[in-house]
Design a protein that fits this description.
With 591 residues, this protein is an alpha/beta fold. The chain has 2 domains: 200 residues, no CATH class; 295 residues, Alkaline Phosphatase, subunit A (3-Layer(aba) Sandwich), CATH 3.40.720.10. The protein is built from 22 helices and 13 strands. The strands form 3 sheets. Strands 5, 6, 7, 8, 9, 10, 11, 12 and 13 form a 9-stranded mixed sheet that branches. A two-stranded parallel sheet has the order 1-4. Strand 2 and strand 3 form a beta hairpin. It is elongated and about 90 Å long. This is CDP-alcohol phosphatidyltransferase. GO terms for molecular function: transferase activity. Keywords: Membrane, Transferase, Transmembrane, Transmembrane helix. It comes from Streptomyces ferrugineus.
Length: 591
């Protein structure tokens, strides 16, 4: 008598494939339930799951990944355990929505939502980096182009090969994270659908708990247990993007208004006629350099020594504070805010001003026709169209100062050499007119390793003397993640830049030299601290007492070091105050 065994029927060419664990969790392309088959039957195949422990382990990992992404903070200071013991409203709402959808729409919605969550997590990581280095959040409208500057900085600090590998690694990780979160969301959605009754009850309970905790303000370690972090981040990014777009239109109108835009040349800075006026920005020279107890002793000692030397040489100084438009980087925003008289705190504003006719402080001197105007920009290594806006007849970039020595990380040459080259090629030459110069000193640019040292001014030559100093210096990788060592080296770099500048003035200055020098921004928050102000020191130095008498009503501090309670102004106010103090007559421009 034949024995019949029940066998699984193989699908025919026109039959639907039977659902299994692989198709259930991995794809969005399966057909909807066959005719007469319920949603529950489609999500619960009649065959026992294979490797159930592995399946549940993967599901738990997928859920954990989603949970971490939902709770991921956007600052390193908030990257704490307490942020990850909260109940996210987005998870409750997402589960409810996915449970209500048929299979195909559910998978599409899960994949799309997961990919968006992954991309938002990448933005949170970018936010962490921007907060750590620039003291502000990432702007999704304006800041993508700054990533190229970040890559250049890494190349100078860590080397080309390391930078390429890190860049590739970051891109791969960002894409991988987005894909993994999408797949994880699909998997969790399918598990919820296979256990629809239990999942629905759990979602209802979780929603009730969230509402109750919100109503009673329940907290864990000072943090509300009921969270809506992801929704809040999306809302903030959207609001920031809308504010940016509105700001572009309004700022373009503001830039057309200029208090001194219509002033005749003869009525601009008449009290500085015959003077050599030099505006110098010292990279990252911020208030923390003078007040942070781990940094200040060396810097203030340098300022005291330099002030004594200048006083002996017949110079006098007054100093105050300016609040920078930027923090930790983007130095050009600080430069342009100081010289344009406009608050330029983002790249779009910068582009708008550079393309405008708004009068820069340096261009004032060119407009008079009574000064030669030059720029010394050792950090510029490519075309610099901003030269026209700043009214500079000639710009000496990194390749035009005759330097043959080594780079010091990002800085193309030591400040002492740049100043000596300025003396040799510009300031020391005979001219028919006085000189107005804009000088950017770069030796105090992060990562502050290796650092140059002062050498004899007569021994500078073509800069080759610095080869041994650079070779024996500290490597960027040795301090880049060490806050204490970064502070120490930062302080040394500021002392070096200040010493270079004041010794240059002592050595080469004349009775008609007027030096204005200031910082462009504070160093990054890992050095200056998360609660640091945006203030930078500014000093005006001259031999002629009449120069400083003109600013007596500013109430600045005597000497190179501003008192803690000295006046604090926004950078954007300096242009008009300076022009007014030295006799300029306001004649507003017409729109």
């Amino acid at each position: 008598m034949p024995v019949f065994t029940r066998q699984r029927q193989l699908p025919g060419p026109n039959d639907e494939p039977a659902p299994d664990d692989e198709s259930e969790t991995g794809g969005a392309g399966g057909n909807d339930s066959a005719e007469g088959e319920t949603e529950a039957e489609a999500d619960n195949p009649p065959y026992p799951p294979r490797r159930p422990y592995l399946r549940w382990a993967l599901t738990l990992l997928a859920a954990a990944l989603i949970y971490v992404c939902l709770q991921m903070p956007n600052t390193l200071g908030n990257l704490r355990l307490r942020e990850f013991v909260r109940l996210p409203a987005e998870a409750v709402i997402g589960a409810a929505v996915l449970l209500s959808l048929p299979r195909r729409p559910r998978i599409i919605a899960a994949a799309t939502t997961g990919a968006a969550l992954g991309a938002l997590t990448v933005l949170n990581v970018l936010d962490m980096g921007y907060n750590e280095y620039l003291g502000r959040h990432f702007n999704i409208v304006l800041d993508w182009e700054l990533l190229d500057d970040a890559q250049s900085y890494m190349k100078d600090s860590l080397g080309g090969t390391t930078t390429v590998l890190l860049t590739i690694g970051v891109i791969v990780l960002a894409v991988l994270l987005t894909a993994l979160v999408a797949l994880a969301t699909v998997r969790v959605a399918n598990v919820l659908a296979r256990h629809k009754a239990d999942a629905s009850r759990g979602t209802l309970i979780a929603g009730t708990v969230w509402i109750t905790c919100t109503a009673f303000g329940l907290q864990i370690a000072g943090v509300p247990f009921a969270a809506d972090h992801t929704a809040g981040v999306v809302k903030v990014h959207a609001a920031r993007a809308m504010d940016t777009l509105r700001d572009e239109a309004q700022f373009a109108k503001d830039a057309k208004a200029d208090t001194f835009g219509g002033t005749p040349p003869a009525e601009l800075v008449p009290d500085l006629r015959g003077k050599d006026v030099i505006f110098t920005f010292i990279e990252s020279y911020g208030r923390s350099a003078l007040e942070d107890p781990e940094i200040a002793p060396g810097v203030t000692s340098t300022l005291d020594t330099s002030n004594a030397a200048l006083t002996k040489a017949g110079y006098h100084a007054r100093s105050g504070w300016l609040t920078s438009a930027t923090f930790g980087g983007s130095s050009w925003l600080g430069h342009s805010s100081t010289l344009s008289g406009l608050w330029i705190d983002n790249q779009q504003r910068y582009r708008t001003v550079m393309a405008s006719d708004h009068l820069s402080l340096t261009k004032v001197f060119k407009k008079t026709g009574d000064w030669d105007t030059v720029g010394v920009m050792p950090g510029v290594q490519k075309g610099w169209p901003e030269q026209e806006y700043y009214g500079l007849d000639k710009v000496y970039n990194a390749f035009q100062l005759g330097y043959k020595g080594p780079k010091f990380s990002w800085s193309t040459m030591p400040d002492q050499y740049a100043l000596e080259a300025f003396q040799r090629q510009v300031h020391g030459k005979k001219r028919d007119k006085p000189l107005m110069a804009e000088i950017i000193l770069t030796s105090s640019h992060q990562p502050w390793a290796p650092l140059p040292k002062m050498v004899g001014w007569d021994n500078l030559g073509d800069g080759s003397v610095f080869k041994g100093i650079e070779k024996s210096g500290t490597k960027p990788s040795d301090i880049i993640s060490d806050s204490t060592r970064s502070k120490q080296e930062y302080g040394k770099s500021i002392s070096y830049s200040v010493t270079s500048l004041t010794q240059w003035l002592e050595r080469y200055g004349t009775d008609d030299t007027v030096l204005v020098f200031l910082g462009d921004h504070q160093p990054m928050s890992r050095v200056s601290g998360t609660r640091a102000s945006r203030d930078v020191p500014i000093s005006i130095v001259a031999k002629d007492p009449k120069v400083l008498d003109k600013i007596a009503d500013w109430n600045w501090t005597d000497g190179l070091q501003p008192a803690a309670k000295a006046p604090v102004w926004k950078m954007s106010s300096f242009r008009d105050r300076f022009l007014t103090a030295y006799g300029s007559t306001p004649h507003p421009s017409k729109d």
